[in-house]
Amino acid sequence: MEVVKEKIEIEEKVIMKVRNLKKHFEITKGYIKKQSSTVRAVDGLNFDVYEGETLGIVGESGCGKSTTGQLILGLLDATEGNIYFDSKDIAQMSQEELRKARRDLQVIFQDPYSSLNPRMTVEEIIGEPLVVHKIASGEQLRKEVLELIKLVGLGEHQLKRYPHEFSGGQRQRIGIARALALRPKVIVCDEAVSALDVSIQAQILNLLKKLQKELDLTYIFIAHGLPAVRHISTRIGVMYLGRMVELADRDELFVKPLHPYTHALLDSVPIPDPKLRKTHQLIEGEIPNPSNPPSGCHFHPRCSFATERCKQESPEYREILPRHFVACHHPLH
Ligand SMILES: Nc1ncnc2c1ncn2[C@@H]1O[C@H](COP(=O)(O)OP(=O)(O)OP(=O)(O)O)[C@@H](O)[C@H]1O
Ligand code: SF4
Ligand SMILES: [Mg+2]
């Protein structure tokens, strides 16, 4: 029994802790009559990321997924709250610690074409992080770049070519090789396969899984919908208007979704069992404006289960089953 307990603890080492994380953008509109408003892009996130896992983060456009990714990468400063990486608060890190953390935290974007410099060869693109961080030069640099391009399933003969000479899937492989150059611990994949054809998506997902095993990587995998994250995620968090509304182990979330919004998202997933299908409501209504969110539970204007309480009181995000977190007054058991 003790051996099992120890194994679970080893598997679940927390590599990143996010506490009460907020990012509010102040927006000013109009030349003569200036009007300002606050966009609550991220509005109080709490979650842990375990070493070696893939944490999927899903939600509709504008719910704050990319902003969360940027905060985790240290590319944006938080308005409030904390991010702990390897037990250290990123905001309290020294310059040297921050430089090291930036190497350990990398990103893969949706559109590798716009994130790869068209005037650089693949060799220069993949090697650039090693040059910038003064990690390798000359023959050592060439060796490392060659190793990286092979890791992502491309060949030496492709090193002297430019990004436009590659297909979308190949460009994403180049983006991945570049993200791996500094041997990071965590990679934020922001819609990393969303722009690719379905068959190519599967290849890139398989490559990411293979690399995760070989290089002990942790992924935070951001996407619009649940189907995209299903096959790669260990756990999945569902965001709505800057907040996490549900987070659970992947299978638990699909089999036992407790939040009405997760149910609505699942509705876009083909469900073979007609009995199950009946319980899945269609999501209705517009996504509210994050600078003027609805009172109480932000989801209440679109929720078929909303009560008077939901209009007034914001539901607490809590662990209502082991490892299963939900923010809802009336979770669907
Ligand atoms: N720099 C910024 N200034 C002002 N508002 C911003 C800024 N960046 C993001 N926002 C706003 O914050 C909210 C969250 O944006 P974010 O890009 O994080 O959403 P997302 O979930 O990644 O959306 P998508 O699925 O479309 O990529 C949106 O309302 C967006 O307009
Ligand atoms: S708190 Fe109320 S409105 Fe919000 S999701 Fe739960 S039932 Fe729906
Ligand atoms: Mg985004």
List the helices and strands and how they pair.
Blueprint: H1 2-11, E1 14-29, E2 35-50, E3 54-58, H2 65-72, E4 80-85, E5 88-89, H3 95-104, E6 105-108, H4 112-115, H5 122-132, H6 138-151, H7 168-180, E7 186-190, H8 198-215, E8 218-223, H9 226-230, E9 235-240, E10 243-249, H10 250-255, H11 260-266, H12 274-279, H13 308-312, E11 317-321, E12 324-327
Parallel strand pairs: 3-8, 3-9, 6-7, 7-8
Antiparallel strand pairs: 1-2, 1-4, 4-5, 9-10, 10-12, 11-12
Helix pairs in contact: 5-6, 5-7, 6-7, 7-8
Bound molecules: adenosine-5'-triphosphate, iron/sulfur cluster (SF4) and magnesium ion.
Residues 65-66 line the site of magnesium ion (MG).
Structural summary, described in words:
The protein is an alpha/beta fold. The chain has a domain at 118-183. 35% of the residues lie in helices and 25% in strands. The chain has helices spanning 2-11, 65-72, 95-104, 112-115, 122-132, 138-151, 168-180, 198-215, 226-230, 250-255, 260-266, 274-279, 308-312; strands at residues 14-29, 35-50, 54-58, 80-85, 88-89, 105-108, 186-190, 218-223, 235-240, 243-249, 317-321, 324-327. The strands form 2 sheets. An 8-stranded mixed β-sheet has the order 6-7-8-3-9-10-12-11, sandwiched between helices. A hairpin with a 2-residue loop joins strand 11 (317-321) and strand 12 (324-327). Helix 5 (122-132) crosses helix 6, helix 5 packs parallel to helix 7 (168-180) and helix 6 (138-151) packs across helix 7 (168-180). The chain is globular and about 70 Å long. The structure holds adenosine-5'-triphosphate, iron/sulfur cluster and magnesium ion. Residues 259-260, 297, 299-300, 303, 305-306, 310, 315, 328-330 line the site of iron/sulfur cluster (SF4).
